[in-house]
């Protein structure tokens, strides 16, 4: 029987990769649970309120977007809008060109992965260096990130050491500390020489216009300390209503993503550097990117726009753990990706319509989501959409015979009664050897088909 | 870009229109309120001495709390960190306790970022429950000096401490760049193994100075 694309990918996965992904995601999930319940008496209440706040934002973007724009402009920030990935990349390039800039250092942002910013800039003669250690390794390997928070969860130290050697970063050494020190030294030169630093934003406060950027490595701080210009690429759904809401979201984000109480660095940025400060950008741009988000907003799955990209649903997902992120063939893997990627694909929906089917609907993703997104419900809605649009679904068991029987009461009764023959199944005579062997070692439960019907009939008398 | 702006905003309005068929905003999700109490860690409830909670939480993220300039000097000497930068505004308070074998510059030359083994700058606030120090653009003399050296020493005063994250959010100053630092810079990108000192400091010390 044909299998789903995700199954096929999981089957081809190298055992080392599978082990790395399994261990990494399980570790993240275990730490999350321990820290959340150790620190808070009622972490579920935090999730529900955070979910309500983000749902409110999503349903009031028409009010919040102009409000945020006005706040940012009042702080001396130039605001740009990009309806598509191409427009977002072009906006970045236009800013670079207007400054005669040719070198960019870049902190991790998921929206720039969506738009393919790095390769686009390189094609246009701009050096664009990823500075997050994981993203840097992805870049020198010409690979793709396989996890939202841990981009190289699928690699081991030997592969990384080999990449460093190939890239001229010293002789082979797979000690993680040496790898990190070499990246530190190499990237320092890049920061100090760069004309522009690019970041994303984890949150934007509508009240004050503050952008919040969180990192552990300190790379976004360097991107905002050495270069003279800061560009932030921000998805239009990143808003929180009030500064005080940041207190709730920051408490949830790091605990959900990595099991930390806070990430090492939490930056609140509201404009270019202050006049007395010698370091940092004198010019700041924010690009609000749509790239399919308004389509998601118009769909029955708009709840997915609450997502704060913590990666908790990836870590807990039994399918992600077996298949790894690349199996999702898109920027967003795991349960969030199974919803978001087909929606963001626009006209290419059918190409990713198998993702919502690669789930048992176990609900673990909903339980860990810091903004309480009912992911299993959304998966069902997308399955329905695929069915309505007639997208073929290889790997789904044929349901035609079942549908035929279930819609004809007489046929149904006949099968329920006929099923009793299984109780007298001559195991030794089964035609398929594998089935014979299996049935020889297992005891089937007694067929009781029709028992409920006769019970009900008696009762009604 | 005006066209993209109008395009996005009109698409947003179009997408949200079905939520309000009769009365505007009526069918949209309301903004809930929440009490700060909800997100205050168990460990931070009923705190008497903010510094002891801060010190404990800072140690929890592998940071080093210090209560005397002599302890800072000892730390630097022990590890052979003999050259660094200090914010000119606080150097007069520290200089008397520093031996001649440690050389300190009060200007920071970005052409020599790797010459500075340590950087001493002011923190405008500390958050006890997380062991966090808060740097600002107006309070920190140089962004790079608090970031590039292997050791960062943040100087805080007892009066500039809050217990929890909601209080720290409420105290966010009117400053274009506020940074909360919680321990040394770190990564677990390689096989989930914790390595400290990635792009920022590998050692985060906090000196309480009254």
List keywords for this structure.
heterodimer; A: 461 residues; alpha/beta; Rossmann fold; 6-stranded parallel beta sheet; 4-stranded mixed beta sheet; elongated; B: 210 residues; 5 helices; 22% helix; globular
Provide structural commentary.
The complex is a heterodimer of chains A (461) and B (210). Chain A is of the alpha/beta class. Chain A has 23 helices and 10 strands. In chain A, strand 5 (203-205) and strand 6 (211-215) form a beta hairpin. Chain A is elongated, with a radius of gyration of 26 Å. Chain B has 210 residues and is of the alpha/beta class. Chain B has a single domain (46-208), classed as Rossmann fold. Chain B contains 5 helices and 12 strands. Chain B has helices spanning 2-16, 50-60, 69-79, 91-94, 165-170, and strands spanning 64-66, 83-86, 103-105, 118-122, 125-127, 132-136, 151-156, 161-162, 177-181, 186-187, 195-196, 203-208. Chain B has a 6-stranded parallel beta sheet with strand order 1-12-7-4-2-3. In chain B, strands 8-5-6-9 form a 4-stranded mixed beta sheet. In chain B, strand 5 (125-127) and strand 6 form a beta hairpin. The radius of gyration of chain B is 22 Å and the shape is globular. The interface between A and B is large, with 100 and 73 residues.
- Uncertain segments of chain B are none
Q: How would a crystallographer describe the biggest sheet of chain A?
A: 6 strands, parallel
The tally of domains of chain B stands at 1
In which range does the helix fraction of chain A lie?
Answer: 40-55%
Poorly predicted ranges of chain A: none
Distance between the termini of chain A: 47 Å
Q: Mind telling me the CATH superfamily name of the largest domain in chain A?
A: NagB/RpiA/CoA transferase-like
Element pattern of chain B in H and E:
HHEHEHEEEEEEHEEEE
Q: Write down the CATH topology of chain B.
A: Rossmann fold
Number of strand segments of chain A: 10
Rounded to the nearest angstrom, the radius of gyration of chain A is: 26 Å
Let me know the largest β-sheet of chain B: 6 strands, parallel
Fourth-level CATH superfamily of chain B: NagB/RpiA/CoA transferase-like
